[in-house]
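Weekly puzzle thread! Below is a chain. First person to post its structure in C-alpha cell form gets bragging rights.
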Amino acid sequence: MSERADTIDPWWKRWFINPVLKQLTQGISAEKLAWTVAIGCALGIFPIMGTTSLVCFLAAAALGLNQPAIQVVCHALWPAHLALILPFIKLGQWIHGAPAITASIPTLLKEFFASPWQFTQDYWLAAWHGIVAWLLVALPLILLTRLIMLPLLRAAALRIERRREASA
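Winning reply:
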C-alpha cells in the first residue's frame, strides 16, 4: 500500500465526521452542535420525499443552528429516510385504524413522476399518517441523539483545544 493511500480518509469520515469536527474549530459550541446533529437526524428522516433539505434549512434558520452541519447530517441519512417512509406511513395508518397502502417505493415513485398532482391527491392522507408516526418518533430520537452526541462532541472539542494549546 502506498503512503498516499494511507493518508486518504474513508468516505464517511471525509463527508460526515470531518465537517462536524470542523464546526468545533470554528467557534460553534459542542452543545449547539449536539442539538444541530440531533435535530438534523430527526428531520433527515421526515417521511415526505424531497422535503428534508428544506425542513432542515427552515429549522436551522428558526432555531439558530448551523446550516452546513444540519445539511451534512440530513444528507448522510438519505438511505434511512428512503427506508423509513413506508414504515412511518404504515405505523401512522395503524395508529389511525386506516387501511394500509399496498404500493412499494418504486411504484410510488413511478406514480409521482407520472403525475405529481394526481399523486398528491391520491396519497395526501397516507403522507399525513406518516407525519403523525414520525412526530411520535422524532422527539425521543432528538433527545437520545443529543444525549449520545454531547459527550462525544465535548471530548472532541477538548482534544482540539489541547492540540491548539500544544502548538501555540
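Puzzle host: Confirmed. Bonus trivia for everyone else. The helical segments are 3-7, 11-25, 30-44, 52-63, 67-76, 78-96, 105-114, 116-167.
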